[in-house]
Amino acid sequence: MWHPQFTEERSDTAGLFVHFRKTLLVEEVPAKPLTIQITADTRCKLYINSRMIAVGLVKGDQHLWFYDEIDLAPFLMLGRNQIGVHVLRFFHAIDHASSFPRLPTGGLMVRAVRCDEFWKAQIQSSSSWETAIDSFAILPTNLPEDDFLHIYENHGRIGPQQLKWVPARVHEFQDSTAQFSAVHNISSPLEQTTWEETLIRIQDDASKSHQSLLLPAQGKHYLELEVEHHMTALLRFRFRRPSSEGSILAVIYAESYEDPPHLVPYLRSKGNRHDDSKALYDPQDKYSFRVAENVSGLGYYEDEDTQEIFMPFHFRTFRFIGLQFDVGASDLVLEGIEITMVN
Known about the structure:
With 343 residues, the protein is mainly beta. The protein is built from 2 helices and 18 strands. The longest helix is centred in the middle third of the chain and has 13 residues, at 192-204. The chain is elongated and about 80 Å long. The two termini are 23 Å apart.
C-alpha cells in the first residue's frame, strides 16, 4: 500500500517521509502469537502504543527484498491500540542515496501470518490504514560532508504541522498476459478457422463471448501455435472435465522451427526459425485426463468436479507450442489456454 498522491518531483530533497497509522480495538488480548511480516521501500520504523518496536529493514535489491517478522501480541492491550509506521522513501530516478536500493514505486507491506482471519483483516495492508506525507522534513543533497548517504534531515519549516491523512491505496500489480498470434500446421478434422475462433480471434476481441471448442470422441488433432515473441510464461490449459478417461494432451515447447537435429539436444540446424515447413523438436509435457471421482480435490481452482485445468508447475520458455490431442471414449471440450508471462 502507498499514499495515493505521492510524487517524486521535488528537487530539494533525496526523498520524503510518509506516515501510516491504524487503530485496533482489542476486546481480548491475543493468547497466541500475532505475527506480521513488514517491509517498506525504502526504510521503516514500527510503533505500537507510543513505543518503537522495530527498525528495518536489511538492505536488499529488486532481486532479493527482505522483510522483518514481528509478533505484535506482547505489545497490545485491551481497548484502543494505535499502530504507526514511519517510512523513509528515497526517490527512485535520482543519483542520491546510492547505497540504498529501491524499486520504481514506493510502498509499505504489512502482512499477517500465523493468525486467524479476523486479525488478518484487521492488520494487513488495506485502505483501512491511513497515510500522510510529511512535507516538513527533507533530506538535503547539498551537504559537503555527505556525498552518497543523504540520510541527514532538515526540519526547518516552522508553524503548524498539520498532516493530511487519507486512506492508503493498495498497489494493484497486473499480471502481464500474452496471446497467440497464429496457428500453423493443423492436422485435424476441424477447420483452421474453427481453431482460430477459439484460440486467437476471441482473445483479440474482448467484446466477443467465450467460445469453447468440442473435440469429438476417438479423434486425433495436432496444431502449432505461435506467440509474437520468445517468452517465459506460466500456462493454464482449461477443459471441461470429460465423462470418461483415456484422453491425452501432449504439449511441445520450442523456440523455433528446425531441421531434424544431428544430436539432441546439442547439435541443431535451425536456419530460418520461423519456417513452418520444418518441425518442432523440443521437450514436451503429457497430461492424461481424469473423471471427477478419480480426482483428489486440492482446491487449486474452482469447480474441480466439472472443470479440468492442466497447469505445468514450472514456467515454460517458447515461441511456438505444438499441441497433440488424442481424444478417448468421450468428447473433450477445450475452454481456452491462458498465458501469464514471468521474468
